[in-house]
Specification:
Layout: E1 2-9, H1 17-25, E2 30-35, E3 41-45, H2 56-68, H3 81-87, E4 90-98, H4 103-121, E5 126-129, H5 132-135, H6 156-188, H7 196-221, H8 234-274, H9 279-284, H10 295-327, H11 333-387, H12 396-411, H13 416-420, H14 426-455, H15 495-531, H16 551-555, H17 558-574, H18 583-589, H19 596-614, H20 618-627, H21 633-637, H22 639-656, H23 664-687, E6 690-691, E7 703-715, E8 731-738, E9 741-748, E10 760-768, E11 772-775, E12 784-789, E13 794-799, H24 803-825, H25 832-845
Parallel strand pairs: 4-5, 6-10
Antiparallel strand pairs: 1-3, 1-4, 2-3, 7-8, 7-13, 8-9, 9-10, 11-12, 12-13
Helix pairs in contact: 1-2, 1-6, 2-3, 6-7, 6-8, 7-8, 8-10, 10-11, 11-14, 12-14, 15-17, 15-22, 18-23, 19-23, 22-23, 24-25
């Protein structure tokens, strides 16, 4: 019996169980699983009488096979010494030879070793053992089988079954690994199409292949439930499990990427469809005035706009879908968010355009409806006058009946004056007004005559034959020869337009005084019904604590506005009732008082924000209930702004019919003063929205102009020499021209339900007007001009939206520079050197004004 210790092995020829199964079953050599002191593997070669008959090649395969096994389970083998030395593929650490028990066999063994010992000892050390007890000195009994007196359990048939199962399982694991690698390579090298149908087919085919591979993996892992599971190599199972986990993770990522790519393709397709909407499309729609001359056409246009807005809802749905994709951590999140922002900006622009168009169409529809009603009333009035029987007026009763018919007809007159104050459809308005004036004058004349006839008997009405020199008048039913003419007919002489203009001016003045009284009453109701009630102890529980100290924010300087109108301005207007043309002097005299509205409008955004926060407060609901107001407080807080715009409209109407009077210049001055006030209020509203400016804006002087421009900047001097003038895309900047500085800001607007509708302006740059010069004309574009700073160290190329805007800005800048030059000429008390330097700077700034 031979025992061999193997330290290491370097096998190059792979051997399977199938090739050496016959010799393994004969127990030519076997592995019991035992280990030596230095963990060397023990290969046992039992005593075999036919050992010499085993081919050396077969013995080499057996030993090679057993040598491979210690890497995972255990290993192999032996024969006579020279065969072992020649066939063993590993490095032998020690050979233990246990002599046979019989005397004859022991003698043969000793003789055999004497003849081969010299050659054998050159390759490995050999120890001859006489008994099993001697063997225990080299190997622990726990590492020896029972036939050597050890306790190690070993069954050769079970070992063969184990090795066969392990090799079969290893082959299956290798095949699965190759299939997974091939499928992974296919997925990685797949070219993605830009067609949704192709990507959908790719997604389905990859999923089906993945499902089939998963079935094979699950079948391989079913060995866990077999009766031989404890025989399978745990390392192979772990390897198979790791491959399954890695493959699942890889395919999940690939599958998710394909799904997200398909979502991106569909989103891009929808984006291109929605992107066909544009502002010019809306702006061009329904702009032909010839098509908007009837209420029916206006109704059709409004329906078209509603349908167009329904189509825009697709963009809102697409924005929501994009946000959902971004929230799902889509790999193209940046692109999707960019598309959403583009759509949101486009939707906001289109919504604003649609609202503007809808409002204008609604107003035009209302206007046309009123004009049509006025036209019908005029026709009905002319028909009434033409069909009254003249012979019945000879009696007092007949005259009174006709007078009642006319008075009843006038009660149903449409509110034409409300329409005449707006400047839309001027041609239609003037035509209707002329017709209304003519009919009204005829009715007035007829009423005067009928009142005289009703009060006393008069001689029979004499018919007057129409003058032949006015044949066109006979075309109208009002002047038909068969109806005749009144003896007290109207004289359409040269005094009639002046008379009617005065009557109309008086009517407008009455309208101004009456609305002023209503305005004062509404202000008083707000101050007493809301503002004063905030100090009422009985309503204190209904008033939020955070609102109690913000009365001045909510109402602003409304008490000052009320005191001015109730104590001063209303009395001024009432004194002008009989002489409407004198109202211009009232506005000019009280011009400074109207600056109260500037403070009120500057506080209006804070007031609106506070109202939105507490609009549902029970306190305001209770106050509204006590006042029996149909509208909430915010509608009344808007009255001062509406009243300010109403003044200039009324002044325009008065000026229109007072062009020939002596005090028309005062009306013109009052109108210009109110327009300047409106502009100043609007500019100040924009100025308070400037953020990021470090300093006091009031130190820059009054805001003279403000507006949005396209700006290119060029730094032609200085250490950096940065030049941005060649940029194709300009910067969009909102410019504020003060008396002493020019501010460059960036307009910002917030969107959403709770966002403030008033835009804000982020401060970017400030130019002192003392170092500014201008170039009025720039080659290539009549809307462009240059503003240069510090002797052209910085040049700002500015493009105005229109030529008119450019001219207006240049005029204001020129005034500032001219005033600065005049101030420099008046500095006689300055040292001569300082004056010379300042004058040279002034000449430098004004050098290019005439270019």
């Amino acid at each position: 019996m031979w025992l061999i210790f193997i330290v290491s092995s370097e096998v190059t020829v792979p051997v399977s169980m199938q090739e050496v199964a016959g010799y393994i079953e004969k127990q030519v050599a076997y592995l019991s699983g035992g280990r030596g002191e230095d963990s060397s593997v023990i290969i046992t070669l039992p005593e075999c009488s036919a050992f010499s008959d085993i081919p050396e090649e077969a013995l080499a395969k057996v030993l090679s096979y057993l040598t491979l096994i210690p890497r995972s389970v255990s290993n192999t083998s032996a024969s006579p010494s020279h065969c072992i030395a020649a066939s063993f593929p590993g490095n032998l650490h020690l050979v233990l030879v246990l002599r046979p028990t019989s005397f004859f066999q022991r003698t043969v063994t000793d003789l055999g070793f004497r003849f081969s010992q010299e050659d054998f000892m050159l390759k490995m050390p050999v120890v001859m053992l006489s008994s099993v007890t001697d063997l225990l000195r080299y190997i622990d009994e726990n590492q020896l089988t029972s036939e050597f007196g050890g306790t190690l359990d070993y069954c050769h048939s079970d070992w063969i079954v184990l090795r066969t199962a392990i090799e079969s399982f290893a082959v299956m694991v290798k095949d699965i690994a190759q299939m997974l690698q091939a499928f992974g390579t296919e997925l990685a090298e797949t070219q993605l199409s830009e067609e949704c149908s192709a990507v959908e087919f790719l997604l389905l085919s990859h999923t089906e292949k993945y499902r089939r591979l998963k079935v094979q993996l699950n079948e391989a892992l079913m060995c866990r439930e077999s009766s031989h599971f404890f025989l399978i190599d745990y390392w192979l199972l772990a390897q198979l499990t790791d491959m399954e986990m890695a493959f699942d993770g890889f395919f999940d990522k690939h599958h998710l990427k394909l799904q997200q790519y398909l979502q991106l393709l569909r989103y891009e397709h929808s984006f291109q469809e929605v992107n066909c909407f544009s502002v010019p499309k809306i702006a061009r729609k329904h702009t032909d005035g010839s098509q908007t001359n009837s209420v029916a056409n206006m109704l059709i246009f409004l329906i078209d706009l509603c349908l167009f807005q329904d189509e825009m809802s697709q963009a809102q749905v697409l924005i929501l879908h994009g946000h959902q994709l971004a929230a799902g951590h889509h790999y193209a999140m940046a692109l999707i968010v960019q598309r959403c922002n583009e759509l949101r900006h486009q939707c906001d622009t289109l919504t604003s355009a649609l609202n503007t168009k809808r409002n204008s169409l609604t107003q035009a529809q209302t206007l046309l409806r009123l004009l049509e009603e006025a036209q019908r009333w005029c026709d009905d009035g002319a028909y009434l006058l033409a069909n009254q029987q003249v012979d019945k007026f000879q009696s007092k009763e007949g005259a009174q009946a006709a007078l009642r018919d006319i008075e009843k007809f006038q009660e149903a007159a449409p509110p034409l004056l409300e329409v005449l104050y707006c400047g839309v459809f001027q041609a239609h308005i003037e035509k209707t007004f002329q017709k209304h004036s003519s009919v009204q004058a005829l009715i007035q004349s007829r009423q005067n005559c009928l009142r005289k006839l009703a009060d006393k008997h008069v001689r029979p009405i004499q018919l007057v034959v129409p003058r032949p020199e006015n044949p066109p008048r006979a075309k109208s039913p009002l002047f038909s020869p068969k109806h005749g003419m009144w003896w007290c007919n109207i004289n359409f002489g040269s005094n009639y337009p002046l008379f009617f203009s005065h009557e109309f001016s008086q009517h407008v003045m009455k309208e101004l005084i009456e609305t002023e009284r209503i305005y004062v009453e509404e202000l008083l109701a707000v101050l007493l019904g809301y503002r004063a009630e905030m100090d009422n102890p009985s309503l204190a529980p209904l008033l939020p604590t955070s609102l109690r100290n913000k009365r001045d924010v909510l109402f602003g300087n409304l008490p000052d506005i009320y005191n001015f109108h109730s104590s001063v301005f209303l009395q001024d207007l009432e004194s002008c009732l009989e002489s409407p043309e004198a109202v211009g002097a009232c506005f000019l005299e009280r011009k400074e008082h109207f600056h109260l509205y500037e403070c009120y409008c500057q506080n209006k955004p804070r007031s609106d924000s506070l109202w939105r926060q507490f609009s549902d407060c029970p306190f305001f609901q209770e106050c509204q209930k006590k006042l029996e107001h149909k509208l909430a407080l915010d509608s009344y807080l808007l009255k001062p702004v509406q009243r300010l715009t109403k003044y200039q409209l009324l002044l325009k109407e008065l000026l229109k019919y007072s062009s020939g009077c002596e005090r028309a210049s005062e009306l013109q001055g009052a109108l210009e003063a109110m327009l300047d006030l409106l502009k100043s209020v609007n500019d100040s509203m924009h100025q308070i929205a400037i953020t990021g400016y470090e300093g006091d804006l009031s130190n820059l002087g009054r805001v003279l102009m403000q507006g949005s421009f396209s700006v290119w900047i060029s730094h032609k001097k200085g250490p950096t020499r940065v030049k941005e003038l060649a940029r194709f895309k300009p910067m969009q900047r909102h410019l504020f021209l003060h008396e002493h500085a020019l501010l460059f800001c960036k307009r910002r607007e917030e969107h959403g339900e709770n966002a403030d509708k008033t835009p804000s302006y982020s401060f970017k740059h400030c130019l002192k007007m003392s170092a500014v010069g201008i170039t009025e004309n720039v080659k290539g574009d009549v809307k462009k001009f240059e503003i240069w700073y510090s002797g052209r160290e910085e040049v700002y190329l500015i493009q105005a939206p229109t030529v008119e805007v450019k001219i207006a800005w240049l005029n204001e800048i020129r005034k500032i520079l001219t005033n600065q030059q005049k101030q420099l000429k008046g500095l006689n008390t300055f040292p001569r050197s300082c004056v010379t330097l300042l004058q040279s700077q002034s000449r430098c700034r004004c050098l290019l004004l005439s270019q």
